[in-house]
Amino acid sequence: MSKSAKTAETIEFPTFDAEKATDQLRSFAEKSLEQSKETYAKFKAGAEDAQKTLETSFETIKQAGDEVSLKAITAMRANAEAGFGHLEALVGAKTISEVVELQTSFVRKNVEMMVDQAKDMQAVSSKAVEDISKPVKTAFEKTMKDIKVA
Length: 150
Prior knowledge:
Pfam families: Phasin_2. By secondary structure, the chain is mainly alpha-helical. It contains 3 helices and no strands. Helix 2 packs antiparallel against helix 3 (96-149).
């Protein structure tokens, strides 16, 4: 036998097993589908959480805005009433010294009232910012925790 004939007789070609290939493809497709479902479920849950957070934030913003607006209206009303009361007192004044005394008293009371109003507005505004940021902060912390777990 020649050398080339001997070589040709000993070479084995791998056989293609269609059943094994089909099983492997099926397994791969099932795993891919399962991973896709898991990813979609996580994405959907994240989107729902984000929507709830936004809804909560918008409601909180509305409530905080209402509270700040009411506080501002109350302050303006108090300032207007003090101004009109001062004008009535000035109209009733009989001497210049009485006018000076009324004006000095009015300015002092008005400054004290404005300082108190500013403190109230600061407290209401600080509470509003805290209330508004709380849902977003909570959602962010939850997301970061979920990312660390994954």
